[in-house]
Design brief:
- By secondary structure, this protein is an alpha/beta fold.
- It has a single domain (9-433), classed as Alkaline Phosphatase, subunit A (3-Layer(aba) Sandwich).
- The model is unreliable at 1-12 and 17-47 (pLDDT under 50).
- The chain contains twelve helices and 17 strands.
- A hairpin with a 2-residue loop joins β16 and β17 (418-421).
- Strands 7-6-8-2-9-12-5-13 form an eight-stranded mixed β-sheet. Strands 1-16-17 form a three-stranded antiparallel β-sheet, with no helix packed on it.
């Protein structure tokens, strides 16, 4: 039975410092990374991106933070003692089985594909999160732009009124991340809640349209005069934030899930993940390039099976509803959906019935535009401990995501006369997964 609140990282943490400071290491205020920002006028689109942007492609990432166990999700090994107590069940694709903890998702497998042969080399939460988000071999949180910033930049449109990189939060909102590196703060994530909408997005009483217009005209004039003599990236960042805020004020209803019918809201569920996914669907309808939903509590060093009964079951139904809804509305045809995590879990089961951080053989699910429906890439051994076919890593995944939404991952960003490869040139996409 799905409860309204999932067990959190606080219940399952592994004792690492990342459980306390990981977010601060990777998500800062806008100005924290503004030193590396460059004015938007210095950017050019990668090859083919303008044409793609006109087609309104989107990407939705559901990030299962902590390291989801592949054994209790996408690559069950119920025939072996390492598989634990849960059975593998058939899905809507003949021959594909997933964990019995995902009965609703199993019915939507014809919209999805699985990659079961991921091997990475970092089992630290923060560092592993950084490499899967950036698609690079890096230990720096700001050295390369994350996936969301990359997609938002590549699919940018001058006339688009909404942020291109949105974190769909369950509650609370406001603020920007520090995850766009050299692309600049305008492509860092903006946090918005479906419950709260956009805070402070209504003009204060006593300030009419004409007064507000005069205030903003004066602000633009002062900033322009200042930057004629002194180019300051801080001013660029504040200017962009103000202009984006004005656009969001005119679009505030987009973020309000109460505009949906009660029947739709009930279907998604009156809990955090359901609200986040419903907001994500609304943002896809408005062609936001990149939306992320986060769900934690998957770091199961002990009581792995008990926690997965709660956490995977909590994820299962709202995710299945989201996929079904996206398909029925025709949105999967232009949207890539990825269920991501920073690493998997070990085949070895500890004395406390837990699983450690596993980087040698783990899995993700994805589907939608550009992806072969019902495909399975790679294979692990009977214990689920090692990859035995088609090994890939985070670099290949990054290329694949971009190609699926029509971005040429072999192209470059041109920034102030310097070129930066969009993705790691030492790797490439998983071509057999792409349509």
């Amino acid at each position: 039975m799905m409860t309204d609140k999932v067990m959190t990282d606080r219940d399952t943490w592994c004792g690492s410092r990342e459980h306390f400071i990981g977010r601060r290491q990777f998500m800062g205020t806008t100005l924290a990374g503004v030193g590396s920002a460059v004015g938007a006028s210095l950017f050019t689109h990668p090859v083919g991106a303008t044409e793609v942007a006109q087609r309104g492609k989107s990407m939705v990432v559901i990030f299962l933070e902590g390291g989801l166990s592949q054994f209790e999700s996408w690559d069950p090994k119920s025939h072996h003692e390492t598989g634990g107590p849960f059975k593998a069940i058939p899905t809507s694709v003949p021959g594909i089985h997933i964990s019995e903890l995902l009965p609703h998702t199993a019915k939507q497998m014809h919209h999805l594909a699985l990659i079961r042969s991921i091997k990475t080399n970092l089992d630290d939460h923060a560092l592993a999160t950084n490499i899967v988000r950036s698609g690079r071999m890096t230990r720096s949180a700001t050295e390369y732009p994350e996936l969301g910033a990359t997609v938002a930049k590549a699919l940018d449109r001058d006339d688009f009124p909404l942020p291109g990189h949105i974190f769909a939060a369950a509650s609370g909102s406001g603020g920007r991340g520090n995850n766009a590196a050299y692309l600049g703060p305008q492509y860092a994530n903006v946090t918005v809640s479906g419950d709260a909408g956009v805070p402070n997005s209504v003009r204060p009483e006593g300030i009419d349209v004409s007064v507000d217009t005069q205030r903003n005209t004066w602000r633009r004039f002062i900033n322009s005069r200042y930057t004629r003599s002194v180019h300051a990236t801080e001013v660029d960042a504040f200017t962009q934030s103000y202009e984006q805020a004005l656009k969001m004020m005119s679009q505030r209803d987009v973020f309000d899930i109460s505009k949906e019918s009660q029947a739709v809201r009930d279907k998604y569920g009156n809990h955090e993940l359901g609200k986040q996914l419903l907001l994500a669907r609304r943002l896809v309808e408005h062609e936001v390039p990149y939306i992320e939903v986060k769900n934690g509590g998957h770091d199961t060093h002990w009581n792995n099976f008990e926690f997965h009964i709660h956490n995977v079951t909590y994820f299962d139904k709202p995710f299945a509803v989201f996929m079904e809804d996206m398909a029925e509305r025709g949105l999967l045809e232009r949207t890539l959906v990825v269920v991501m995590t920073e690493f998997g879990r070990t085949a070895k089961i500890s004395q406390g019935f837990g699983r450690g951080h596993g980087t040698d053989a783990w899995s993700i699910a994805l589907g939608g535009c550009g992806i072969q429906k019902g495909a399975v890439i790679g294979k692990t051994d009977e214990k689920g401990a090692e990859v035995v076919d088609r090994q890939v890593d985070h670099r290949h995944l990054f290329h694949t995501y971009l190609r699926a939404v029509g971005i040429d991952s072999s192209a470059e960003f041109n920034i102030a006369g310097r070129t930066f490869p969009i993705a790691d040139p030492a790797a490439g996409p998983i071509t057999e997964l792409l349509t």
